[in-house]
Amino acid sequence: MKHFLSILLRNQFNLFYRFGYTYIPKCQLLEFDGVPNELIKEDLVRMFSETTPFEWEEEYLIIEFDKNELVEGEVFHFQIQDVVKVYPLSAQAKSSIETKIDPRIKLERPVFENILPEVEQTIENQELEKAIQALWNVCEIEDDLNKYLSNIGLNNILNGLERRKKGTKPNQIKDGNYWEYVLAYDRFDYFPNSTLGYFFDAGQIFANTKGLPSFEGSVLHKFLQGINSSKPEIKIKEIVKLLETEEQGEKYVSQTTVNEQLKYLITPLYLMLKDEIRKAEDIKSTNLFKHLKTLKEFGASFNYAIILLGAFFGFKKFYDAYYDNLNLRFYKSYQPVKDKKEEVDKISSDNQPELDKSNSSKEDASSDDNKVPEDRSKIDEQPLETEQTSSQEISDSTETISIKDKTKSKDQEIASNDNQEISDGLDRKDNIESKIKDEILPTDNIESEVSENPIDHLKKSNSDTETVIKLKNIINELLMDKAEMKLTDMGYKIKEITGQKVTNTIIKNVIKSMDNLEIVPKKKPETARKTIIQDLFNKQI
Amino acid sequence: MAWMIREDQLDPDQREFINVESKKSGNIWVKGFAGSGKSVLLIHSLKNVLQKEPNAKIAVVVYTHSLKDMFETGMKELNIPSSIPVMTYIEFCDKNSQNFDYIFCDEVQDLPSRVLYAMNNRSRKVIVAGDSNQSIYDTDPRWNEPVVNPSQVGDIINARAFSLNMIHRLTRSIIAAVQKLLPSMNIWGAKRDLTKQDVNIRLCEASNETEEVKYIYQEAQKGANVGDTSVILLPTLNMISKFANQVLSANSKPQWNEKKNNYGRPDFGDLNRHFKNNGIKIQFIGSGYGSLSDAERNKEAILMSYHSSKGLDFDNVFLPYLNNSFYLYPSNANTLFMVAMTRSRKNLYLTYFGYTHDLVDKFKGECTEISISDILNQRTSTRSNNNFDF
């Protein structure tokens, strides 16, 4: 008789129980002598590291089977009567599962509970890295994440979170790294409930790193209290400026500055955004995203704060927003990329009738003007030239598409792998996409009819004014529930709605004429967003 | 409260309830601690019923008007028609001619048995939610009848129990303390969720009651001044009067001569006026007196009974007089104390002089111990003694 162990998801076990048989792949099966030992536990840890992670211990069971012989293969068939024992992962899991399963099932003592810390640590480490990468991506930070991450130190982050898990308060930490204190920190003192309050928090943390229970009595404390008395609603930039320029802040600033790490700024920035994200259901609705551009002006300090925020909240908090950015292929909102060639073909065929129509109207005009046949032949040649140009452009675009297809398979990897290439890959995708679209769109006939200043052209007649108004309305609608939108995507949407192709240049000029929208500066591909109201930002931070 | 939930956001208990348990026939009793998601699951279950049976006659029965408001908000958010009535248990009993296909009921542990019999008789299926561990009432206010005990809930409506064990509302420190106070409760926190603001449980020893009360008032004021909500909880009305006069005394203000209202109970409206006239920033709330928003607006700490605090959250919670002469009725002492200590979001102050009460001893290891004398007397010296270099 051979003995085996396998880890099964609870749902999988339920279906196994319901149908009376299941199939288990060879890699998820562990042969042993019937007595759990340390070696077996190591193998189980390995098996957990190679399977879908879990949040709750009760989501997996360890099943012990015995069977006289197994038919050689990659997948093995087990009957319900092959099950010998069912082990929950922990005592907590045992007591919870027992209330939900057939009461005849005997759950064993959780003899493998001691593998849990290692299994969970592996999952948590992955979670942490994914979370940081996701938030980095969602914030569209173009800098190299690894550089910033290594400056903070992944181990320091992990240690900080471990202290938090154990409920260690910063004033109980001995000789930790600065970032451990920051991550373990919660405010229990009565600091001002304003932006300035976060600088009090930072002062408190700094005191804790020096083994002091509080920073009350320090020059910094008195300085901040003075600011609080004279200007309680002071904004973050002003506070930083005062710290950097006034004598009372000098020693604190110099002791909390390590190269580009301005801890006196990173810490309050992180704590402030932490509070903001903590109370939000949807992170896209937070000030982090509403005022992303302004926050990015803090440069490296903002980047460090993002790493801490990612680590603190975990992937669970960001995966919604991140998945939106990934353009997942199984989402209803998926914008197909692999269909670019078809799209190009479609545009090509769409262009043809328009070109023909254009010819025909010109024909009509020439006819009306009694143009000589020579002139007609010239007119006939023109679409041919245009068509040739289009074909050339399409050919170029198709070439780009083959690159794009490769990028697409890369995207697939991105969706399933957490590597640093995520943001790079997406940027590459955006650039290629933009190139394709920008190359295709100028061939459309609206562009050819519009002067250098399309707005002026569109304003020439009432119907043109109506066109502009219509475009404005559509653009407003498109940006109604989005923070930003690429001009090329707008062009596609406008075509979907109106049936007409509109170039990026036209869209850009229409947006420039709108008070409530703006083109995001220095952003490629070109993107539009709602105008940021600086005053509102100042009020809120 | 977030009412819209998706399957990937549920814990295993909640998932099991939505996907399996709620679809089975028969009455159900959803048990779970505050913050385990009972009310949300109740509403989702209602929504599932409506999808299958759009014409089903459904009612929601709750304990208080504030719960009624809460349910109506949630149902609106989930696009559940407003034609489905949400009523208090008294309104339900008063409208005794109406029968239903489904009744959904929350806080069942606070109802007298007659309401459960009525629900069982007047509905094809009953789904109730509640936790007997949280029952802090002996009788109901309408009929003055005893509230149901745990075995009665299952028996009267013949319901099978379903437990929600994951607590999402409480912080790590509070869960650890509750686990030690009530080990039989089987509550677990979401252990990988480290994002919640933890609560600092401070066990504060004073050298006498005057010092204890002075410290509480001082800390509560500090909280109120930065916009925190601070509440001082006491188990009886007599202790509330005692605390009020000790605060007045510590601030050299005239004592409050307790007046009775028309029901022969203390007139706390008069106490509130006395506080205000003497510049004491405390407001009593409960029994129809005082207002939470008024207290918050005026930056006043709140004085309240353990019972009245149920269902409410505050940044800072103060539980005074927790020495060995502190008395709670033994029948529900642990539960009542647990309800009081789980009200805090940021700081929980357990204050005493002499020896700590047995209840506190159970989780003393989870507390940060503080000497009130040291704090009151050393504040200045702490500042000057520290050699700050920043």
Can you describe what's shown?
The complex is a heterodimer of chains A (541) and B (390). With 541 residues, chain A is α+β, with helices and mostly antiparallel strands. Chain A is 60% helix and 9% strand. Chain A is built from 25 helices and 11 strands. A 4-stranded antiparallel beta sheet of chain A has the order 3-1-4-6. In chain A, a hairpin with a 2-residue loop joins strand 7 and strand 8. In chain A, helix 8 runs antiparallel to helix 9 (219-230), helix 12 crosses helix 15 and helix 22 (462-478) packs across helix 23. The longest helix of chain A has 44 residues, at 373-416. A 7-stranded parallel beta sheet of chain B has the order 11-12-10-13-14-9-15. A 6-stranded parallel beta sheet of chain B has the order 3-2-4-5-1-6, with helices on both faces. In chain B, strands 7-8 form a two-stranded parallel sheet. In chain B, helix 5 (113-122) packs parallel to helix 6 (150-157) and helix 8 crosses helix 9. Chain B is α/β, with parallel strands linked by helices and 390 residues long. The model of chain B has no long low-confidence stretch (mean pLDDT 88). In chain B, strand 11, helix 11 and strand 12 form a beta-alpha-beta unit. Chain B contains 14 helices and 15 strands. Chain B is globular, with a radius of gyration of 23 Å. The interface between A and B is large, with 46 and 38 residues.
